[in-house]
Amino acid sequence: MLSIKNLTAKYGKYTSIKDVNIEVNEGEIVVLLGANGAGKSTTFKTISGLLKPAAGEIFFEDEQIGGKTPDKIVQLGIVQCAEDRKLFPQMSVQQNLMMGAYVHRRKKNQIKQSLEEVNELFPILYDKRDDPAGSLSGGQQQMLAIGRALMSKPKLMLLDEPSIGLAPLIVEQMFKSIQHINQEGTTILLAEQNANAALSIADKGYVYENGKIVVNGTSDELFSNEEVRKAYIGA
Ligand SMILES: Nc1ncnc2c1ncn2[C@@H]1O[C@H](COP(=O)(O)OP(=O)(O)OP(=O)(O)O)[C@@H](O)[C@H]1O
Ligand SMILES: [Mg+2]
Question: Can you give the pTM of this predicted structure?
Answer without folding.
Answer: 0.93
